[in-house]
Amino acid sequence: MKTFGKLLGLMMLLSMIVGCTPTAPKEAPVASEAPVSNVAPAETTLTEAEQWAKDNGLGPYQPETEDWAAIEAAAKKEGKVVIYANSSKIGKLTDAWNALYPDIVYEGNDTDGIDTKMAAEQEAGNVVGDVWFNSDGHILFGKFVPNQWLWSFVPSDVVIPEVTPDRPFAIARHGTDLFGYNQEAHPEGCPITNIWQLTEPEWKSKLFMEDPISDVSMMAKLATFVQYADKMAAAYKDLYGRDWTTDEYAVEDSFGMVVEDAGYLWLRKMAYNAPSIQPGGDEVDAGYATLGMDLSVEPGIGFTGYSSYQTTLDGELAMAPCFGINPVSGVFKTSYLAIANNAPHPNAAKLFIKFALTQDGFDPWNELGNYPAADGLSPAEGMLPLDELKAQVWEMDPVFDWNNVSKVRDFWAVSLLAVPQEEDD
Predict the structure, then answer these.
(1) Taking the mean position of all CA atoms in its chain, how far away is CA 304?
(2) 389-403: b (≥16 Cβ within 10 Å) or e
(3) Is the link from the previous residue into 279 a cis peptide, with omega within 30 of 0?
(4) Do the bridges between strand 301-305 and strand 319-321 make them parallel or antiparallel, or are there none, so unpaired?
């Protein structure tokens, strides 16, 4: 009966995953190994999307310089720009935009499921959103680029060192998610020195995190720990003095899932240790870092935004970042800007991208944990220098994430169901 119950639970959970995860239509191509580079095709016959991009000077057809007076004049005739962003701060750009472009209506939308919404618009041929402003790089490169649903545009006078022919999209900013602790409970510093400690009984149900099953962005962050499996293996040996392959859970589980490397082992043991899943970042922080918690009980650790530390500095939270832990303190993510194929307001979209890459465009996000990508912009005071931060975090790779996130998701889901009986008591 226990086996039947596990199998039934697995079927139900996988059904939830399918329901929560957008899938590409059968006719829509996706990247299997690497994203298609944004390079102009050699053949003279263009697809409809390529012809549209060429007509509008986007992607590989972008001219070496822009006539901004002509672009602004055309944008005024378009009269509007619509941005789909995965940030509530997008609305804070309204006043600065209106001061520059009072004749162009600004519509900045904090949109859940941007990829699903924009894909549906492309497939229906009814495009509403002009600009993608989102950190789901794995979906951008793995699904939208092969389908020619988004085009790059980087103003020629803006320098973003990370932009390359294979990664041609403008980068608005970088953010950081990391492990945090309650500094009222631990004024001496982070209570862990190695993230493998979070898989031990002492920390059972004490890691607060957003739900990776329902949040594809969170699942992509977990995939990063698999990407750096070699460093996870070294950290395991540093803590326990033996190879990860000797761990009691480095075996096939009751559903036949095998552990391929130390990254997957960490995910399995994390799942077995019953993390406290929360619906959002605010709830994650509240779970372990609320001011005045009962400190006779360990509050726990959170996987949260570095920006939450600003709330601590404002006197409203007790979160502090776990810098210096082995092998990593968190992940480094990227927020991309792109223009939708057949965007109804392509010139206004160009103006918005130029605006977003200025100091005024960055200011709503200019807080602890966020770093501008364009040269010449200043990050918030009090942050670690970028080079020092990047030595302590792992940068998310959109290509690796696209190729592996589904596999990681399935492994995580099964691990939640395959908890050994002795761990479940």
Answers:
(1) 12
(2) beebbbebbbbbbbb
(3) no
(4) unpaired
Report the Cα 55 to chain-centroid distance in Å: 32
Asked whether residue 9 is domain-assigned, the answer is no
Q: Looking at the structure, do residues 151 and 36 belong to the same domain, yes or no?
A: yes
Rg, the chain, Cα only: 23
* Residues 327 and 184 occupy one common structural domain: yes
Q: Using pLDDT thresholds of 50, 70 and 90, give the confidence band for residue 113.
A: confident
Please check whether residues 372 and 294 belong to one and the same domain. no
How far CA 135 is from CA of 82, 335, 402, in Å, comes to 17, 4, 13
3-state secondary structure at position 118: helix
pTM of the model: 0.85
In angstroms, the CA 132 to CA 105 distance is 17
β-bridge mates for residue 278, sequence order: 210
* Residue with token string 């939270």: 317
Backbone dihedral angles phi then psi of residue 262, each to the nearest 5 degrees: -70, -30
Residue 32 has pLDDT above 60, yes or no: no
Of 256, 182, 270, 257, the closest CA to residue 225 belongs to 270
Omega of the bond leading into 327 within 30 degrees of 0 (cis)? yes
Q: How confident is the model at residue 38 (pLDDT cuts 50, 70, 90)?
A: low
Residue 12, pLDDT above cutoff 90: no
* Boundaries of domain holding 54: 29-174+334-384
Q: In Å, what is the CA distance from 36 to each residue of 159, 163, 166, 415?
A: 23, 15, 8, 33
- Asked if residue 376 and residue 241 are part of one domain, the reply reads no
**Tokens (6 digits) for 183:** 């500094």
CA 161 to chain CA centroid, nearest Å: 20
Q: Is 322 left (phi over 0), alpha (psi -120 to 50) or beta?
A: beta
DSSP per position, 68-81: HHHHHHHHHHH-EE
